[in-house]
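Protocol step 4 of 5: obtain the predicted structure for the target chain.
Materials: sequence only (see below). No template structures provided, no constraints applied. The aim of this step is simply to have a reference model before the mutagenesis design in step 5. Sequence pasted as it appears in the construct record:
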Amino acid sequence: MRQEEFDPSKDAQQWDELPTISLKNWFHGTEAEKRDVAKALYAGATGSGFFYLVDHGIDQALIDAVYAQSKHFHGQPVAYKDQYNINKSLIHRGWVSSAETVGNESAGKTLNNYHETFDISFEVAVDDPRASKGYGLIGPNVWPDLAGFQSTVSTYYDAIYGLGRELLAGFELSLDLKPGTFLDHVNIPPSQLRLLKYFENNEPSDELNMGITAHSDFECFTILNTSGPGLQLMSYEDHWVEAPPVKGAFVVNVGDCLEAWTGGLFKATQHRVINLGKERYSLPLFFAVDFETQIKPLPEFSTQESRERYPAFTAGEHLWGRTINTFPYLKRQFESGELVVDFDVAEDNPFKRLSLEEQEMQSTIAGITPEQRL
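Step 4 output (structure tokens):
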């Protein structure tokens, strides 16, 4: 592809070798072998910026069963799915319809994200004193009355959440941190699992028509299984890279909280899903820490520069604020005063980055030369 033909709104590099990490020795190896896995995690987070996980211990049959349940739910009539519409939930659980994702106005443009999803999170009983009072992110899930749906999806959630805990322990070791530095903050985290469906359409693939627009994830990291192409992730060196599906593997990308905790050593992986016009499904688990966790550079990564770049914030407030800003139904409730929070909801995510190609294009439009950018 000639450089002048490269469109940073949809084009990406294609790597011959994808960064892949086996967890076999993490689960079954010696202490030295576990440390080698931790070193690989460090290299993945600071080298490629994302990586694939294999030998993770989650049975492919369970993954296939969750996909089957997802397809079964999404194949139901709209009237049925609307019973579980997320706009009827106080704690952001349930079905996200295309009304939330297609036809949204921003800066005078109409943006389309061609997907719908069913969202669950860490299960907390409604009468648990830790559950959100009114609007929030902590509480019980909403479950469709489809045969096998709750049991299958709950089993998968427990498995992928357990894998997330192992991965966070691996990151602790990779950074030579005391065990529990991260995990002590994972007790009732708002770690969301999405059953995503990207639906068929005849629209072009461009910056106004996406599967999901470019963003970073607001938690610690994301563990993703996907059934088809379209995912692109930004490398540590700030280039978009194609991330094709690999049977039996999960894709892992770093989120905002790990970037801030490490003072920018880890970088929140920007990612997007290009609109290919074809139906596909995916299963992202957004691994979070407890709502009240204070996030700032750890002492090991605290410098004047990192403290200025990453002022302290509350993990749950960052997640809840970004969620309010992302979902039209929540934004309407917030702007009307129906949904009230005791913190500022920023318009933009401070962890947002552009690829080098996008920066170059913006500079060209603005008439700024490469020398002026330095």
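Step 4 remarks: The domain at 3-373 is CATH 2.60.120.330 (Jelly Rolls). Residues 86 and 94 are 5 Å apart (CA to CA).
Proceed to step 5.
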